[in-house]
Amino acid sequence: MKKNMLIYPVSALLAAGLFAGCAAMSVQAAPGRTAPASSAKPEASPEPEAPAASPDIDSIAGLGELQAVVEEPFYKNSAAFVVDVDNGHNPYDVEWDYGELYDAYIEEADWSLVFDADFYMESFPALALLYQYDEELLLEHFQTVGVHEGRQGNETFNVAAYQENCKKELRAAFGDHYECYYFYWMLNQASQEGVATSGENYPLQLDVKMTYEQAKEFEKVNEYRAEVGVEPLKFDPELAAAACYRGWVDISEGYGAHDWLNDEANGETANALMGLLHMTRLGENTVDCGVNNASQHINNTFYINYRYSPDHYEAMINPDYKYFGCSHIYFGTNRIPESRRRDSGTYNKPMMRIEFDLFTDALSTPVHP
């Protein structure tokens, strides 16, 4: 396993130009028992009714109790935590699956009332970069992650403004389950006319959602810092999007470890990536590993790998760093050219997996302006 750490200072921030060009199971009788013979054809079981979206308060409030698969412990569904960059649907990020009922609400709602792709990309530029400016996938992110975080999706609907001005019964029912306010607004337009949903000084994002794996990585890094009396890091979702971009670009473009950053051909893009978040210093820890087949893509203890590597450990406990973001596991076909395969144990494998932790001393994002 190859483990690396890099501190990358940047003097020129070239954010401009980064956006260019983007736009069933058989049943048997129990042993020792004989199923009764019958000449009558058994009646077919009725198909279960599909969940339906309801606009009433109590039904929508129930959405706040749903949990996505990637929020559950890693071992329950480990494959959900892996981003396969060869996935034809979404090769950039994990998918947040809340079940059929939530999907029914997504289908029922009019998302044009709360989402504009250009506004979303401008407000969350590192996320837009990660998603390669794919408007449909960014809408999917907003529907499954953004609304839970209270992200503003267009100029006219800010959930903090709506939460402040809506009826008290909505606040009593929904609390800080921000997704409920979005769905209630979209499904009850007739009764909500006149409620203020915008204004000055409302934040673009109210909360942060992490997968179980990200939350565990963040928790352990801060445990290490506490052991040596260093202030805890703050998790930033835009920095996490940048970490995910690093995982995606290494797998998809055939780079190992920090090679992408060290390649002069990527200098302008690397500077621009930092410029998006207004960073002047970036530290990254990474574990990249060659594997023989798809069953070997799982590793959820990166913080342990980093703990017992001096350079990686130093990055985790460095008091100069204030903010943290980590990626999911990125996995795909090995695209590293023969000329860059430095050893047979790591890179001469048919597939690769990788994870990134990023650290910075300062940034400017919707969560940390």
What is the terminal-to-terminal distance?
37 Å
Approximate shape: globular
**How many DSSP H or I helices?**
15
Largest sheet: 7 strands, mixed
Strand content: 5-15%
Poorly predicted runs are 1-39
Oligomerization state of this entry? single chain
Helix/sheet category: alpha/beta
Average pLDDT level:
88
**Which value, in Å, is the CA radius of gyration?**
23 Å
Percent of residues in helices: 25-40%
Order of helices and strands: EHEHHHHHHHHHEHHHEHHEEE
Please give the number of β-strands. 7
What's this entry about, in short?
The chain has 369 residues and is α/β, with parallel strands linked by helices. Helix content is 35%, strand content 12%.
